[in-house]
């Protein structure tokens, strides 16, 4: 097989000849190839050599990965059942984590299909048709994603959890000191869910827009009348925004969700705020709620102050669900996901604090977290509740705009 791929052929020609490489190219950022029509239209316009240049990829390493995938597919028994990993990963860590998974799958004697997209694409692609799945046979074998709605919606993933389909096999029995010191227990008492890491929501304060107000240090202050029409919220970041709605409701009730709606000035993606640098303008928010990751890029602006909320950064956990019936076979993959190597990628490259005790998350001293807790998540129906809370929030935004 070595040396068979012609780098001057276009992507459509290559994927027609070697369908096995589609997943490799999709995981390298060419999501168009996941769609048959786009694979034809886009793929015919770009050679493999050009594609590597577009994404700043090492062409030789890319070819090695593609050839390894082709070889793996041709050497494995086609009748053998493959393992499928689906879900979404936060953008800053998607590529390095996917690369580690690709390396591991190359060592295994069975086929692994990776269907991992960037979290910015949302989860609709995964949720569509989910309610039509009748048995665990229709499910992927491993799911990885941040957020609460897919995993805890009683009509979606939770339906299969209640049937005892999933079981945590990470072997994680002790949490990182950052969480134990804060009194936050991310270990599922029923042993179904695995939590690998968290996405914390924090504040970025534009001091030029405070107009004499003190820098807010808590969610309680964000919800106060003083900061009505002053806050940018990550509405398009579905996982994090849903976590904010759930946690505000859990702590402050429906009135808190209404106040959050009144506080919102605009829905601004954190990357937009960082790009604009909070330039003085009539429509600039005084506070931007964003993932902790973005504060790294915002440090270059002297008028911006990063605040870790005194009552806790709202937590959107990165969950993993694994099929109990396949755990023994999948253990090498599960061990990788729960490894120190992956924990460091999450904590260091993404600023997504790892649950592993051996990883230094580099968080501010005495950092607190706001997390709804397992009893709340199992006692409520988060999927239905979130739809209700979103409607409540949108209504408050509309009233405030009048």
- Rg, Å, rounded: 22 Å
Quick one: how many beta strands?
10
Low-confidence stretches: none
The name of the CATH topology of the largest domain is D-Maltodextrin-Binding Protein, domain 2
> How many helical stretches?
18
The CATH class of the largest domain, by name, is Alpha Beta
Q: Mean of residue pLDDT?
A: 89
Instruction: Please give the CATH architecture of the largest domain.
Output: 3-Layer(aba) Sandwich
Helix and strand string, N-terminal first? HHHHHEHEHEHHHEHEHEHEHEEHHEHH
Distance between the termini: 66 Å
Main sheet: strands, sense, barrel = 10 strands, mixed
Taken from the alpha-carbon principal axes, the silhouette is: globular
CATH superfamily of the largest domain: Periplasmic binding protein-like II
Q: Which structural class do you get from the secondary structure elements? A: alpha/beta
Percent helix, as a range, is 40-55%
Beta-sheet strand percentage? Answer: 5-15%
Count up the domains. Answer: 3
Question: What is the topology?
Answer:
Elements: H1 11-17, H2 22-27, H3 36-43, H4 48-54, H5 59-75, E1 83-89, H6 91-107, E2 112-118, H7 124-127, E3 142-146, H8 149-152, H9 157-161, H10 177-181, E4 194-206, H11 219-222, E5 231-233, H12 238-263, E6 264-267, H13 270-276, E7 287-291, H14 295-298, E8 304-307, E9 313-322, H15 327-337, H16 340-349, E10 369-370, H17 374-379, H18 382-401
Parallel strand pairs: 1-2, 1-3, 5-6, 5-7, 9-10
Antiparallel strand pairs: 3-9, 4-7, 4-8, 4-9
Helix pairs in contact: 6-15, 6-16, 12-18
């Amino acid at each position: 097989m070595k040396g068979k791929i012609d780098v001057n052929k276009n992507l459509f020609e290559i994927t027609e000849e070697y369908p096995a490489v589609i997943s490799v190219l999709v995981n390298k950022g060419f999501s168009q190839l996941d769609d048959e029509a786009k694979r034809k239209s886009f793929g015919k316009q770009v050679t493999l050599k050009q594609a590597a240049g577009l994404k700043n990829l090492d062409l030789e390493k890319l070819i090695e990965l593609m050839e390894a995938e082709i070889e793996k597919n041709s050497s494995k028994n086609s009748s053998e059942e493959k393992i499928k990993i689906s879900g979404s990963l936060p953008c800053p860590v998607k590529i390095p984590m996917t690369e580690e998974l690709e390396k591991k799958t190359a060592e295994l004697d069975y086929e692994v299909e990776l269907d991992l997209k960037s979290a910015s694409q949302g989860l609709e692609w995964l949720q569509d048709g989910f309610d039509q799945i009748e048995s665990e046979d229709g499910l992927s074998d491993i799911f990885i994603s941040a957020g609460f709605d897919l995993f805890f919606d009683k009509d979606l993933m939770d339906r299969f959890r209640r049937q005892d389909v999933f079981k945590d096999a990470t072997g994680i029995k002790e949490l990182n000191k950052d969480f134990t010191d804060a009194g936050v227990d991310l270990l599922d008492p029923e042993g179904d869910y695995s939590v690998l890491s968290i996405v914390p929501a924090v504040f970025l304060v534009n001091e030029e827009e405070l107009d004499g107000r003190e820098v807010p240090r808590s969610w309680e202050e964000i919800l106060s009348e003083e900061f009505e029409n002053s806050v940018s919220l990550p509405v398009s970041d579905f996982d994090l925004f849903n976590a904010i709605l759930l946690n505000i409701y859990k702590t402050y009730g429906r009135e808190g969700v209404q106040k959050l709606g009144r506080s919102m000035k605009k829905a601004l993606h954190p990357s937009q705020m960082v790009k604009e640098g909070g330039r003085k303008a009539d429509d600039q928010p005084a506070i931007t709620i964003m993932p902790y990751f973005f504060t790294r890029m915002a440090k270059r602006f002297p008028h911006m102050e990063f605040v870790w909320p005194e009552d806790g950064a709202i937590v959107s956990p990165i969950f993993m669900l694994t099929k109990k019936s396949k755990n023994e076979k999948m253990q090498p993959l599960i061990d990788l996901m729960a490894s120190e190597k992956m924990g460091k990628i999450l904590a260091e490259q993404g600023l997504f604090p790892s649950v592993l005790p051996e990883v230094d998350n580099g968080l501010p001293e005495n950092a607190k977290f706001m997390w709804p807790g397992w009893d709340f998540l199992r006692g409520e129906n988060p999927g239905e509740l979130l739809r209700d809370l979103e409607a409540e929030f949108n209504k408050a935004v509309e009233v405030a705009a009048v």
